Amino acid sequence: MSTEEKKNSQISLDSEILSPSTEKEVSEIVREIYSKQLPIEIAGTGTKKGFGYNLQTARKLTLSKLSGIIDYKKEELYIKVKAGTPIQDIEKILDENNQELAFEPIDFGYMINGQSNKGTIGGYVACNFAGSRRFKVGSVRDHILGFKGVNGKGDIIKSGGTVVKNVTGYDLSKLISGSFGTLVVLTEITLKVSPKKQSQITVIVYSDEIKKISNLFDKILSSSNEVSAATFIPEEPDNENYDHTKKKIFKFNDLDHEGSFLAFRIEGDKRSIDERLKELKIELDLSNFNSSILDVHQSIPFWKKVNNLELFSGTKNNILRAVLPPAKCETFSKFLNKKYKYCIDWCGSLFWIEVLDKDDEKINKIKNFTVENSGYLTILKKSENFDFQDTLFTIDNTRLMISKKIKESFDPKKLFNPGRMYREF
Amino acid sequence: MTELALPKIDKDTISRKNQIVSQLKKFTKDENILSENEEIKPYETDGLAAYKQTPLAVVLPENTKEVSEILKFCNQENIKVIPRGAGTGLSGGALPLQDAILLGLGKFNKILEIDFENKCVVTQPGVTNLGITHAVQHKGYYYAPDPSSQLACSIGGNVAENSGGVHSLKYGTTTNNILGVEMVMMDGTITRIGGKTLDQEGYDLLGLLCGSEGLLGVITEVTVKILRKPQSVRAALIGFPTVEDGGNCVSDIISSGIVPAGMEMMDKALIDATDKFSKAGYPKDAEVLMIVELDGTKSEVDGLLSKVSEIAKQNNSNSMKLSNNEKERLAFWSGRKAAFPACGAMAPDYYCMDGSIPRGKLSLILKEINELSKKYNLAVANAFHAGDGNLHPLIMFDGSDKEQLRKTEEFGAEILKACVKHGGALTGEHGVGIEKRELMCESFNNDDIQQQLNIKKSLDEKNLLNPGKVYPILRKCAEEGRVHVHRGEEKFPDLPRF
């Protein structure tokens, strides 16, 4: 940046927190940090700050001022927004138009400090963590049509566009999803949106036998009746170090609060829901279980609570996120053996596990078991006294080597969120 | 056909041919290496038959270890490698080079594991797309992405091109339906990306690889998701008196919250041609014809079909048939599926384009194409995947007239540029390959392209894997390309297309 340009710019590197409000300003900042080799932390509004390794950087760049809806085409099923746009703003306008983000954005605020704080769309793309509908509709990355951003040299780059069928060049939208801000500073994101389903119900099946639960998950996955979410909420371990929140959180008229339960959701118009419920009752042999049904007014808040991980609201403990092939559900649950507070989402594939403070050895055991069973594990929330020496993300040496090369191709001086995902870069 | 620039030929490599062939015999059986002219002739082109090159040799490895050793050797010896699946690609992505080894994956043709518990299939890349569905359909499952060439195209090629099809609006393309791959990099490194789990951790290398057109690695194994077949499928065949009415109907269906399994359109020229060819019974008075397919539970499909009928009526539809059984549904599709051979009967040659535009611009682009048709005095027939805005204009010409060929090329390039101008993409499903390479700068500026080249360089430092494809060599906008079919002499003319 020339002296003249610097004088005209509202952003100067003299400040430790940089809040650009235009893409050009982002580019100018990055060009300057590139020339001065200053490592930088990139954040939206900081709601997912605790994820990954802690950073030691010279400057922090926040995208909170780079906010707003650029273009919303309801009939084209896309919305183009600036990267720092609060997710609520996007959800609000979509809701007004009877549309939604099908990947069900998770509100991590509850887990971080016990209250709602969704953050920005840039943060969702950076983390690529989708909610309960994942096994049916794909992850965050499956809903990104295109993006613009600034690479580590300050170049403004783009990929994709606004149309769903596009195979022009490498699909960088996928690559930047889940990259935790280590490849580009996102400035603009185009998202695929979906029509909102007319109605929904949730069927609650009471059982604490994991073999039966695992079997139900399998039958749901095998069904053509399009179940759009399925979760298992077990009883909490009898240990005073865990907050016992289950009964408080899942308090609904048609839900028996005692014991473990599996819940699955059916969405669509009323006639279709009735038809599918009838068939699922037969497919799942529901007459062999105690069960109840949450109507639409209970079903909607129920899944919000599941998706927002309210079960782990404000916990001081470590939170792990393990993803396994669905057929490993029973094995993994038995391994956890009611010693931990956990729940299973994505119809048997995703485990959220709370592990007590300072239980590093147990975390290591869970991680090893996950990998041995063809899964992967992320240590998402770290407790205060966390001194885990192993990696927070699962990766083998070859993929680490490839990832390192990819990182260098975007950010040759390794200035963006250094060490956030892997200590090597 | 206008000549496209290819990477500079390394004469030294060609002069070492015998030595290289003999070295390759260390890594695989002798019979897996083809080097005589008559043996390698079938490999001189892929589905874009207008371009032909004879490779240095063809190697047909049998396992991942052999692929790794061959690539490692080629990397050390600076020998270019062109990976190839079934060779049905339409953008010249597997076009050989004279100084390159063509690495055919045809012997990787086994399904390794059918895992109903995890709802996936682990397969070698040479298995056909339809082969996967055939392997699981006895239990009511199928593999969702359905490129029209699914009978012949390989799943490895599908990953390389991120193939889609009629049903991609609802079920996504390849990238949304694969869970993992085994891949060999140019330096011989073997790695696994993903597996049987949803998503992966870290950088989405699977997403990067999918659609990378064989430039980043050679795929040696693929794990795909399988889905249960929907309980009920029905279709509507709807005619409209004007292009605008048809285009508006597409937008209104989507806006109303309906996501059909497939939504296809044809213009009058194609309705007449395909109906003559297939006797599908298409309406004679329609300017555009739409096929809308819906799937789900029986009552859901019946309900949605009735809503679609209402929306079509509100948009002035002048004919409508709803399928009441599978035979009727397939009859609706028969004309649409015969688009390619039907056009073959209309003119000595035709060019098939592949671009994407926003759905709302369908009638606008059709108007522009018709104006261009008058400007160039060349007939054109249009087929659209209307649901996702992927269009396939077919330009009729006579290739023996050089002036017509030149005009056809200009016409085609103008259509693709119009797609980009209206917010669409240069290619919806055929890939860039060699065909649209020089048009990349219509979509991307130098910084965008340089970022992609940086990725390529970081994984294939010497640019030996499928060089000359996707990225412009000259960094200028030339006007060339397209699928050229002369008197039906396209590769695999019997395959349904588009």
Written overview of the protein:
The complex is a heterodimer of chains A (425) and B (498). With 425 residues, chain A is α+β, with helices and mostly antiparallel strands. Helices cover 30% and strands 22% of the residues of chain A. In chain A, the strands form five sheets. In chain A, strands 4-5-9-7-8 form a five-stranded antiparallel β-sheet. The two termini of chain A are 27 Å apart. Chain B is an alpha+beta fold and 498 residues long. Chain B is built from 17 helices and 20 strands. In chain B, helix 9 packs across helix 11, helix 9 runs antiparallel to helix 14 and helix 14 packs antiparallel against helix 15. At the A-B interface, strand 8, helix 7, strand 10, helix 8 and helix 10 of A face strand 9, helix 8, helix 9, helix 11 and helix 17 of B.
Low-confidence stretches of chain A: none
Rg of chain A, Å, rounded: 22 Å
Principal-axes shape call of chain A: globular
Measured by DSSP, the beta-strand proportion of chain B falls in 15-25%
Q: Count of helical segments of chain B? A: 17
State the end-to-end CA separation of chain B: 23 Å
Biggest sheet, spatial arrangement of strands of chain A: 4-5-9-7-8
Gross morphology of chain B:
globular
Mean pLDDT of chain B: 91
Largest interface: A-B, 87 and 92 residues
The class by helix and strand makeup of chain A works out as alpha+beta
Note poorly predicted spans of chain B. 475-483
How many strands appear in the DSSP assignment of chain A? Answer: 18
SS strand fraction of chain A: 15-25%
Q: Which helices and strands occur, and which strands form pairs?
A:
The complex is a heterodimer of chains A (425) and B (498).
Chain A (H helix, E strand, L loop, with lengths): L2 H6 L8 E2 L4 H14 L3 E4 L15 E4 L6 E5 L4 E5 L4 H10 L2 E2 L8 H5 L7 H7 L6 H4 L6 E7 L5 E5 L11 H5 L8 E8 L1 E2 L3 E8 L3 H13 L4 E7 L12 H4 L11 E8 L1 H14 L6 E5 L1 H12 L10 E6 L5 H8 L4 E5 L4 E6 L4 H13 L3 E6 L15 H14 L15
Parallel strand pairs in A: 1-3, 2-3
Antiparallel strand pairs in A: 4-5, 5-9, 6-10, 7-8, 7-9, 11-13, 11-14, 12-13, 15-17, 15-18, 16-17
Chain B lengths: L10 H5 L1 H8 L8 E2 L2 H4 L16 E3 L4 H13 L3 E5 L15 E5 L6 E5 L4 E4 L5 H8 L4 E2 L12 H7 L6 H4 L6 E7 L5 E5 L10 H5 L8 E8 L1 E2 L3 E9 L2 H13 L6 E6 H11 L9 E9 L1 H17 L4 E4 L3 H12 L1 H6 L4 E4 L2 E2 L5 H15 L3 E6 L4 E8 L4 H20 L18 H4 L2 H14 L23 E4 L12
Helix pairs in contact in B: 9-11, 9-14, 14-15
